[in-house]
């Protein structure tokens, strides 16, 4: 394979699951530990594969819509009071 992109195109769902498990537990299926470089490249491959094969809400790192906790309480408008506008 001549490029990272070609490699990503050849990843099957089974290979993706294997990479994902290896990154999660830090070991290959045979029990050997991933080196830091292997973990980094495997994670990059996972994320690249996910971009082309999974909906956004199923991808690694997806946070979903979030609101600030202070948004639940109304904030009074101190600049413009409704009775001041006539």
From TrEMBL:
Source species, domain of life: Bacteria
Protein name: DUF1315 family protein
InterPro entries: DUF1315 (IPR009749)
């Amino acid at each position: 394979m001549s490029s990272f992109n070609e490699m990503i195109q050849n990843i099957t769902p089974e290979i993706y699951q294997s990479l994902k498990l290896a990154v999660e537990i830090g070991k290959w299926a045979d029990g050997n530990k991933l080196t830091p470089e292997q973990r980094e490249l495997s994670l990059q491959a996972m994320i690249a594969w996910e971009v082309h094969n999974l909906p956004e809400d199923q991808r690694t790192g997806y946070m979903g819509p979030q609101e600030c906790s202070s948004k639940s309480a109304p904030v009074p408008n101190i600049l413009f009071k409704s009775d001041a506008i006539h």
